[in-house]
Amino acid sequence: MSLDFKPGAFNDFFRDETFRDDFTYRNSPQNILRFPFPFDRDDYMYSVNMEPHVPGRKGTAFEHIFDVDEHYVSEMIDRAKVLADDPLRCQSLPHMALAGWDLLELLMESKARDYPQWFSVTKDGNRWHWINRPLGIDHRFTFLDESTLPYGPFEYITRQTQGDFSLQDERDNDLWMDAGMVTSQADWSLDFDVGMSFMEWHAPVPLAHEKGVFDRALKFLLKLQHGAPVRRFNWTMTVNPLLDTAPETYPIWGPSKTTLTPENLGAKQHLRVELQSLYRLPRSNAIAFDIRCYLSRFDDLVTVPKWGRRLHRVLRDLPEELATYKGFIRNRDAMVQWLSKHDDGSPTSPGWWPED
Amino acid sequence: MSGGAKLQVRVAEVVKVNDLITRFRFVTRDGSPLPAFSGGAHTVVEMDDHGTRRLNPYSLMSDPENSTGYDISVRRDDAGRGGSLFMHTHVKPGMEMTLSYPVNLFALDSRAKKHLMIAGGIGITPFLAQIAQLTHFGGRFELHYAARNRALGAYMDSLTAAHPDRVHCYFDDEKQTIDLSRIMSMQPIGTHLYVCGPKGMINWVLTTAEGMGWPEPALHYEEFLAPGTGLPFKVELAASKKTVTVGTTQSLLEAMEAAGVDAPYLCRGGACGQCETTVVKCDGTILHRDHWLTPAEHATNTKIMPCVSRFEGTALTIDR
Question: What is the model's pTM?
Answer without folding.
Answer: 0.89
